[in-house]
Structure formats: C-alpha cells, structure tokens
Amino acid sequence: MTLPSPNSSATQSITRVFNAPRALVWKAWTTPELVMQWWGPKGLTCPVCRIDLRVGGRFTWSMGLPDGQIFYNGGKFLEITPFERIVWLWHFADADGNWVSPAQYGFPHEDREGNVDEILFADYGDGQTLLTYNRNDPAATPEENEGAAAGYAEILDKLADLLATLVASA
Predict the structure, then answer these.
(1) Domain membership flag for residue 3
(2) Residues 69-81: pLDDT tens digits?
(3) What is the pTM of this model?
(4) What single string gives the DSSP state of each residue in 127-145?
C-alpha cells in the first residue's frame, strides 16, 4: 500500500501506521482520559487535558516535566470530520488554554499566535490505521522542525504502546 502524499502546505508531515482500528486511534486522540496516558515525549506526563470536540470548541493539553513544571498547549478546532480529519489552531497556552508567548516557558520561538495543523486518519491494511500529522509552522527553523519531529516520534511511540494495550484487552 502506498502512503498518501503529504499536505502540500505542511511544513512538516509525520506519518505512522498503528496496529489498531481507525475508530480506536480516533478515540485515543479525542478522549481526554486516553490522551492523558500518551501525550508528551518520553519522561513527560499529561496531567491536564480538556477537549471540547466540535468546530469552534477549544482544547488544552499539558506536558508535565519530572521537576513538576507544566507546559500547556491550547487551541481551537477548525474542522472535524469524524474518524477522518481534525484541523486545529494550536498555540502555547496558560492553564486556562489562553494564548501565551513561548518565551513565558523559556522557548526561543518567535511570538507566533498559532499554527493550523491537520491530523488525518485512514484505514491501512487489515485492522491498521495510517495517521498523518501535518504541522504547519512556516516560521519554524530547521532546528525547531528537527526537535518537533523527534518529540512527535516519542509521543507517537507512547500512543502505539497505549493502542497495543487497548487492542490486547479488547
């Protein structure tokens, strides 16, 4: 099976095949209790996750560091096609999901008000799901893109582990 071409407007396209049905992968992305089990690179936790899954709805996800510090991302859902596509505007946030400058967390990123990203879910093989995450951050430096790719690889590894557990217990 051939992987689909990435979104031409994406600055970075990350794909992963999961050994889980699309409905389960969708559920893992859209259910706060499940997101809290896998969001964040290895060694980080997700102590806070709120999702209002509707167009115009907001979300707030966190990443907890081992030292107790918590970083937040927030955003708004722009498009939702159940089990197929999510488009969202995301940004660095405070605990309430309000936009904050990345500098507040000590990141050298420019003050970008948000980026529109796309997540695609597609059937792939027998009971598998192809997930494509199209990051749209035109102002990102090559170093930022490299760091994001490494972070998402770890995040998606954690998601794969959770999905394997969920499939095994079904």
Answers:
(1) no
(2) 999 999 999 999 9
(3) 0.88
(4) T-EEEEEEE--TT--HHHH
